[in-house]
Design a protein that fits this description.
This protein has 3 helices and 18 strands. It has a 16-stranded antiparallel barrel. β17 and β18 form a beta hairpin. It is globular and about 65 Å long.
Length: 358
């Protein structure tokens, strides 16, 4: 009996060792290494009333989390990876929805990344020039029928330089366009120059070939039982956008920034859309005053545009915004009020929120 028990224990031990070995081999790719994974993220939640008719307060949860890892390939080249979740919506956040890429970098030549990330131009449009909800006017790149630039884009190859002559950095990016076809392509780039410590100048461009403008939603019912307009067939065409901006810090407690961007769309197949060509121009200006842990910001953004060569009042937008924020031991809490107007209608948005990084 004891012999049988001992043989059973020995067999179980051998089987367990085999399983552990097999399990370890199953999860190892290449040689084992001592690279460390960094967990990071941002806690960002706010209560917002968009000020629209029949709207109410809602929670806007942009909390996200990500992982980074790096491993030396040689004495001068490092491989790295990042995977980041998206913002929380009703259906939750998907891991990999935000900047998710692999790449290589070196101290002497910069870095190259492959995957999903912000385009060079949108990186400037988004911050600081769309701060305090000025993006409702200045950042129109993501709306159906008005997309003259991408924002966060997959299937992208992007190069970012090191600082040259202690004052210049640049980025270049290429990739598939809005569809995986030979004719749908994307090109973009930006350059930033700091001629003096107080001043930084930016410029960027972006070109899209055979860009698809999203179709409208399918026909659905309104709350009163009437039928909404049926969805539109997507239009396809070429886009190009250009951007210039500046950041001025005359003293440590003051920052002034301004930017201008322009975009154009020429349809090769307008689908169910009513226009063949559309142009949009927009600018934003802001002033920031920092007093200890407090931040005061005022801003203004304006947009207008033409459709088929005729001024289109539907494209006229304007935002006036103000923000007061205070940092409590790295936790930033803010009150933001913005007046948005479109087609002559005004909506006063109020947002109260907090953000902190980990």
């Amino acid at each position: 009996m004891n012999k049988i028990f001992k043989r059973s224990v020995l067999g179980a031990a051998i089987a367990t060792a085999g399983l552990v070995s097999a399990s370890a081999n199953a999860y190892t790719i290449g040689e084992s290494n001592d690279s460390q994974v960094e967990l990071y993220g941002i806690v960002s939640i706010s209560a917002v009333d968009m000020g629209k008719k029949d709207s109410s307060w809602e929670l806007d949860n942009e909390t996200r989390i990500g992982f980074r890892a790096a491993q030396a390939m040689s004495d001068s080249v490092e491989a790295f990876v990042q995977v980041e979740s998206g913002w929380m919506k009703d259906e939750g956040a998907d891991l990999g929805h935000r900047d998710t890429f692999v790449g290589m970098r070196g101290d002497n030549w910069g870095q190259v990344r492959f995957g999903r990330m912000l385009t060079p131009m949108y990186e400037l449009v988004d911050w600081p020039y769309s701060a305090s909800n000025m993006g409702e006017t200045f950042d129109r790149g993501w709306r159906s029928g008005e997309r003259f630039l991408f924002d966060r884009k997959s299937q992208q190859i992007r190069y970012d330089s090191v600082k040259l002559a202690d004052m210049i950095t640049f980025s270049l990016s290429v990739g598939n366009g809005s569809e995986n076809t030979d004719d749908s392509n994307f090109y973009g780039g930006k350059i930033s120059i700091t001629p003096a410590d107080m001043l930084t100048l930016h410029a960027a461009f972006e070109v899209g070939e055979d860009t698809e403008f999203e179709s409208g939603s399918d026909a659905t019912f309104n709350k009163d039982g009437t039928l909404k307009e049926a969805g539109k067939e997507a239009s396809i065409g070429d886009t190009d956008s250009f951007f210039v901006g500046f950041e001025l810090r005359p003293i440590d407690s003051v920052m002034v920034a301004g930017a201008y961007k322009t975009g154009e769309y020429d349809a090769s197949n307008k689908g169910s859309f009513t226009y063949d060509k559309r142009e949009i121009d927009a600018y934003s200006v802001q002033a920031n005053y920092y007093m200890g842990n407090a931040n005061f910001r005022i801003g203004y953004a304006n947009q207008d545009g033409d459709t088929d060569g005729v001024n289109d009042a539907h494209l006229d937008r304007e935002t006036i915004t103000g923000e007061f924020g205070y940092t409590f031991n790295s936790v930033y809490t803010f009150l933001r009020v913005a007046e948005h107007s479109n087609d002559g209608d005004g909506d006063t948005m109020v947002r109260i929120g907090t953000e902190w990084y980990f």
